Amino acid sequence: MRDRSLLWLGALLTVLFSLGTAWWFFGRAAPPVAPPDAPQRQAPATAAPAQEPGIRYPIDQAGSAALPAGDAIDPYVATALTNLLGQKLVLTLLQTDGFAHRVAATIDNLPREHAPARLWPVNPAGGRFAAVGRPGHEALDPANAVRYLPYLALLEAVEPARVVALYAHLYPLFQRSYEELGYPGRYFNDRVVEVIDHLLAAPEPPPPVALVRAEVKGPYKPTRPWLLYEFRDAELRNASAGHSIMVRIGAANQKRVKARLAEMRRLLTAAPARR
Prior knowledge:
Layout: H1 5-28, H2 73-85, H3 87-93, H4 99-109, E1 131-132, E2 138-140, H5 149-157, H6 160-180, H7 188-200, E3 210-213, E4 229-231, H8 234-237, H9 241-248, H10 251-270
Antiparallel strand pairs: 1-2, 2-3, 3-4
Helix pairs in contact: 1-2, 1-5, 1-6, 1-9, 2-3, 4-6, 5-10, 6-10, 7-10
């Protein structure tokens, strides 16, 4: 079991944190000026209207300011995040190139088995996965949960309404990125709600969560054996990337994440989101 949990949880929570706190910037400050040689900003294509069939949870774009286009998109998002978080945090935590594409790909991949690292919107975090017990009788170390506390603190520090407000503002970028992933005509916000529901349905196995070491075949042996743990339970072992995260962060942390996701789902589906 490769230790993708911290990275994936970082991707999910840092994205939510970034979107939520960026609401302050977009709501109170003028958008950054594009470089002289950048294309002129133009209004993005609007999302499909609510009355079109197939859209379950429409995002209302009424009154949303125009977003940049072309090469001006990345500087626009990066400047906003830097003004909020500072250059050090942005360079340490985030991958701002193709940010909307990374977010769309990250969310879309959470219910899947594999999640390519090259698409993550965050940089790898420090620390490593730990197990307890003697060989052959190992289990998930409860101390692993501590590694996720900073991300949980960020998630709970942001009001869900602000997350949804900025999400609506940037929605055309996410919609376009989602369609470019190979989903023409599919509505990204419907996928967001679907993925939230998937995470809310994550299993909650009682501790201790048993582990086994995967068999390594071939002449090359890993130098970091902690990357090779798998869940002993077959259902957990075959779980999606998102469900694996929710189990590995620990039962208490999982409840906190689910509470925040449930609130975001309520805001995303109760009525069209407005900025």
